[in-house]
Amino acid sequence: GKIDPTKEKVKPYHGPYLNKMGLKFLFNYTAAQQQDIIKNYFKIMSVRHPVERALSSYMDKFVYSELEFPILESIDYINKNYRGPAEQIHLTRGRQTIPSGVRFDEFVDMVLDDKAPYNIHWDSIIHICHPCVIQYDYVMKTETMQEDAPYILSLLSSNLKKPLELTKIHSHRDAIFEDPDKPHDYTKPLPELLNI
Question: How far apart are CA 79 and CA 23, in angstroms?
Answer without folding.
Answer: 36
